[in-house]
Amino acid sequence: MKLFAKGLLLIAIPSAIELALLGVVFDTQGEAAQAAKSAENSKQILWQASSLVHPLLREAARVRTAIVLEDSSFIDHRAVWAEFSDRIALLAHMVSDNPVQFARIQRINDYARAWRARCGEVADALRAGQTSGLAHAGVDGLPPEIDAARHELDAFIAGQTRLDDARSASLRESRERQQDALIFAVVGSMLVWAATAIVFARNVGLRLAALGANAQRLSDGVALASPLAGNDEIAALDAVLNQTSQRLREAEHEQAALKLQLQERAADLAAANDNLRQESQDNEMFIYSVSHDLRSPLVNLQGFSKELQVSCNDLREQIDSANLPPGERQRMVEVLDGDVDESLQFLRQAVARAAAIIDALLRISRAGRLEYRWQRVNVGRIVERALAGLAEGLAQQAHIEVRALPPAWGDPGALEQIFGNLIDNALRHLDPARPGHVEIGALEPGQAAALSSGPGGGAGTNGTNGTNGTSDGRAAPPTVAYANMRETTYLAGTRTRTYYVRDNGTGIPAAYLPKLFRAFQRLHGGDSTGQGTGLALARRIAERHGGRIWVESTEGAGSTFFVALPDEPLRAA
User: Fold this and answer.
1) 72 near 126, Cβ under 8 Å?
2) pLDDT tens column, 112-151
3) Computed from CA positions of residues 108, 110, 114, 120, in that sequence, does the dihedral angle turn out positive or negative?
């Protein structure tokens, strides 16, 4: 049975019993009211009956006086009889429901009429002067008509007194029953509601308590009691709690298994990271050692090439001063100025290229091992120094616009390397078909937050690059590339500043973006004068600063390099 039906029964049954008790109370009240009305009516009848003969007695006294004085004017012909008629009519109406008493009233009325007739005869005799026969009537006590009426009235009063006693007794009994009914109704109502409360407590209250206990057990994570019986909402809710408990236990088992797997994978990842870190350190040390070891042969090659060049110059002077045949001299000059000079030039170029590569390796190796001098850095001044250190003539290839640059937290020399490499990269990849333009600035905090998250928590977007539109009106969606953040130390919760270097150069093909920030990757191959290490070095420095670097580029329209740097001292994650 549903809770609604149970509630209706718990309300309906006591209400029906209450109505029955109220019916009994109302019935006893009706009986008591009727008994009180009857008793009051009896008292009114007795009061009226007690004074019924008073007009007749007054008239008898008047008649006696008239006889004695022989004056008929003492006899009342109207007022007394009008008063008596009103009283007896009222009394007859009051006992009309009692045939015996009504008959007595009729007989009293008959005696009164007889007495009235006799009074009329006395009055006529007095007026006629016939008083001889009236002397006896005036002195022999009450007239027989009045005496008979009094006897009949006494019988009426006696009967009415008995009836009044009976009605008074009935009234007392009715009031006693009414009081008993009220007491019974109050006690019965209390018992009914007590029984209802007991039923509710046993059937609903205990079940709700059990449901609450199961809910508490579920909250405490302990086993639930057995499911409640029944098909009401409480049983349904308890069944849901048991199902939830079962699912939670299953989820806990699955979570424990997954946690164990995660711990194992975390241990594996930690070991792999340690191995990678150790291998990275070993590789850096190897690169550093090899670079130093390769420097000595390169220095020797550079010295030997210079010595050979000096020897060739001396040999040329000796040939010029020697007395040789013209044909032989010509052949020797062609060998010295041709094959030998070209070989020496090729040797010098190869040695210079190898030295540049070794210097680049050393710079990358040192970027991971140098101790930084952490301080608040004036980025604007850093950019000025980076522009001043550009190769001669490189800065004149484009219009360079430097906007307001807020300070950052880091090492001044390292940050100068980042901006120097980004600016140098922008100037080396301008589009010869249009005037070059390079813009250096910083994003507002709202603009930086609008960029979608990239690797390592970086921000970027595939659809927001308001600066990469082409100068001739062409529009193309930018392609986004992020630095490989596998070794990043970017710390969440550290406030950062996002700077950018924007150009309108040739742009970067989408296929090249995934390897853009790797070392020795050159976009234009042999046409580029760089070694392909500038962006990799910038990435490494940004990572050591707890920041990140990425690019948005549209081929043929230009590129925008972003670098996020801390705005406050780094704190542990």
Assistant:
1) yes
2) 888 778 887 777 777 777 666 665 554 456 788 888 888 8
3) positive
324 and 384: one domain?
no
For position 144, which CATH number holds? 1.20.120
Distance between CA 444 and CA 404 in Å, rounded? 11
Residue 76: name the closest of 123, 36, 37, 134 by CA.
123
**334 belongs to a structural domain:** yes
Q: Please give the helix or strand (H or E) that residue 497 lies within, else none.
A: strand 496-503
**Three-state secondary structure string covering 144-209:** HHHHHHHHHHHHHHHHHHHHHHHHHHHHHHHHHHHHHHHHHHHHHHHHHHHHHHHHHHHHHHHHHH
Which pair of structure tokens corresponds to residue 227?
């499911």
The model's pLDDT over 524-556, given as tens digits with 9 standing for 90+, comes to 555 555 566 788 888 988 988 889 999 999 988
Give the separation between CA 281 and CA 284, rounded to whole angstroms.
Answer: 5
User: Measured between alpha carbons, how far is 163 from 157 in angstroms, rounded to an integer?
Assistant: 10
CA–CA separation, 60 vs 149, rounded Å?
13
Going by DSSP bridges, is the β-strand pair 558-566/548-554 parallel, antiparallel, or unpaired?
antiparallel
Alpha-carbon distances of 48 from 53, 79, 381, rounded to whole Å: 10, 18, 130
Contact between 517 and 444 under an 8 Å Cβ cutoff? The reply is no
State the Cα–Cα distance between residues 115 and 250, nearest whole angstrom.
116
- Tell me which residue range forms the domain holding 164: 12-189
